[in-house]
Every structure is written in structure tokens, then in C-alpha cells.
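Intended use. Records like the one below are meant for learning the mapping from a protein sequence to its folded structure. Do not use them to infer anything beyond what is encoded.
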Amino acid sequence: MSSTMSRTTVAENVAVSRPKTLTERPIDVLYLAYFGIHLLASIAVDAQLTYPPYSQRLFPQPLRKVLSDYMSTSGDPFLAAAARGSGEHVWFRVLLMSETFVQIPFFVMAIWGLLNDEKRTYPLMVGYGTLAASSTLQCIASVLFGKDGSELTSAQIGGLLQNYVPFCLIPTLLTVDMILRIVNLLGANSSTHAAVGKEAGKDE
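Structure written out for the chain above:
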């Protein structure tokens, strides 16, 4: 009886660890869409302000116009501060550099990991989600309660929140989800090792 249960445990844990198709992971479709959109936005818009004005010269005129139009209509105080090299927003300029040199490569890796159900990317997603959620929350709080939103209209604040809130909530969900997945994987591995150990002990 015990031997049968051990074999069942091993079989169940193997089933848990096998790669699943994307249709079996609907929440991962959301993450995939998020990373795809964020990758395009980071390359087309945010990367231009990594080290202005020099970084902007690397981009074609149509993309520069996209950035210019967005900044003029949204009144985004953070991108505007980065464009003029504001000393009060050095923290945001650091985030832009991080996005260009760290997060863009990560987005590519995350998309690959989600497409292939690659569990080794889970810890990286926890790290990214924590950083993205906390930094975006800082921007939201600064717009709502700080001076960054003091000169914006209600429509502009609403537009910024429509951009910022999803980019705070989805990374938060991603972080919690990936932590739970890692915990489940660790538990499954422990059960497998225990079951295999019992079988080996009986064989001896």
C-alpha cells in the first residue's frame, strides 16, 4: 500500500513539473500580453530618454514624434523631468536606465519562458514584479499626493492612472503568483525525494 502511494506521489509530481501548453495556462496569456506591450513601449518610448538628448538621436523621427505627442497630451511629469534632466527626478532616470539595460532583455527572456513554460524564469519574474510594482506605485502616489500632479488637469491625471495602475497591479499579481508557483514546486520536489528515499530504503 505504502509502495503504491509512493509511486502515485512521484507520478503526480512528475505531472506537475511537465511543461504545459499556453492554453492550459490562461493567466500566463495575460503575462505574455503584458510583457509584449511593455517591451514595445520600452523600446519605442522609454529607451529614448535613457540619456537625453543623445539617446533620442538613435531613434527614427516617427518614434521621436510618438514620444513627443505622448508627452504633450499626457503631461507625464516623469518623462518630462527625464527629458530635461531634472535633478529632482534622478530616481526616475535611474529607473529608465534600468528599464533599457536590464528590463528590456528580461522582457525577451520572460516571453520565451512563458511560451515554453520554463520554470527557471520564475525567480526572475518575482524580482521584476517586485521592482515594477513598487516603482510604479511610487509614481502613482507622487501624482496623486505629491507635487508631480499639481499642475496636471483631472483628465491628464486620469489618463496617467489608466497607464500606471495596470502596470502596478499586473506585476503585483505576477509576483504573488510566481512565489506560490515556486513554493508548490519546492513542495513537490520534497515529496518526490521523500518518496524515492522510502523506495530505496525498502529495496535495501
